[in-house]
């Protein structure tokens, strides 16, 4: 797929995600519109797949009436109807059936998703690492365990996380890496960084995901508080991604929600990434407290029960989310004058919380929502379904701008990030 088509398909996905029928009509009227109707991305997802995943009913109706195939299969062999049934979107399922979508057999695999046929178990595994071309790819980030670089994989720009060769013999490191891959294989959502493939049998170990050119939220906040409507839009992106992770029966607790792990794509949509510390738990009740303890995650955003090594559940992600919300509006990290460990200690031992700035504007209901989310008591923190409802109400009460209005701000951040990377590489 050429760059032009790739860009056009991304615009179609954006219109579909927002159920913007007028924008979708204009895109489909273009010269390449006939291709775009059934155009597939690197995961073989068509616009209809995306419409179903977001329950964008009007967009799905338009696509189907324009001739979209009703039963395309993505890389996991899931049809739009299979996804609609899995997500419980009954109106969407009825619409698809009206246009000839075949009922999905009650076969189950892996995480219980309804599928038309079992997928190839190891279709994501890269046996020949030379498929990944790092020439000209920039360094995105590095740490004690490895680095993340931009690369090219079969003509597609991707991000590649590489484990240091010196650590490839470390059983604990390899176990954590394989655990992250096994988790990512099961995750698919518009607000989750998309896993593509991995090198697991040769050194160095590598994990391939979609490349998001917007950088991370941390870099954006370094320029100061976000515009209110952009902060609310980003908050909804994060909340929707985590709500998906917390959906049973396989609950995923991220355990490290922070600005550096929230990445911006080419459409200025925020996605949750870095699942190296995430924990997948099979449960029958999503409100169960799991026997998970220990100081897992980043201290500054850490829930008190984690710092105190107490049992915890999905509400630790709610607490971290509240800290990120605060940072987006204030333009500074919680307790930014304190060391991160001291900040976590104050939160856990003395029930301290960062103070809302007297001159900081918060839309009606936002401070109250943040206060509930960082409650000392996990049981009093709301779940993400409720958080999404509240954020949508706040968004409806606020004057809305399309997030593309902030394109120049985001481009400036990206430019500065590239300049810092170039300086780092020269030094």
UniProtKB/TrEMBL annotation:
Alphabetical list of Pfam families matching this protein: Ank_2 (PF12796), PK_Tyr_Ser-Thr (PF07714)
Catalytic activity: L-seryl-[protein] + ATP = O-phospho-L-seryl-[protein] + ADP + H(+); L-threonyl-[protein] + ATP = O-phospho-L-threonyl-[protein] + ADP + H(+)
UniProtKB keywords: ANK repeat, ATP-binding, Kinase, Nucleotide-binding, Repeat, Serine/threonine-protein kinase, Transferase
GO CC annotations on file: cytoplasm
Domain Protein kinase: 134-394
InterPro entries hit by this protein: Ankyrin_rpt, Ankyrin_rpt-contain_sf, Kinase-like_dom_sf, Prot_kinase_dom, Protein_kinase_ATP_BS, Ser-Thr/Tyr_kinase_cat_dom, Ser/Thr_kinase_AS, Ser/Thr_Kinases-Pseudokinases
Enzyme class: transferase
EC numbers, comma separated: 2.7.11.1
GO biological process: signal transduction
Binding of ATP, residues: 161
ANK repeats: 43-75
Listed GO MF terms: ATP binding; protein serine/threonine kinase activity
Family note: Belongs to the protein kinase superfamily. TKL Ser/Thr protein kinase family.
Protein name: non-specific serine/threonine protein kinase
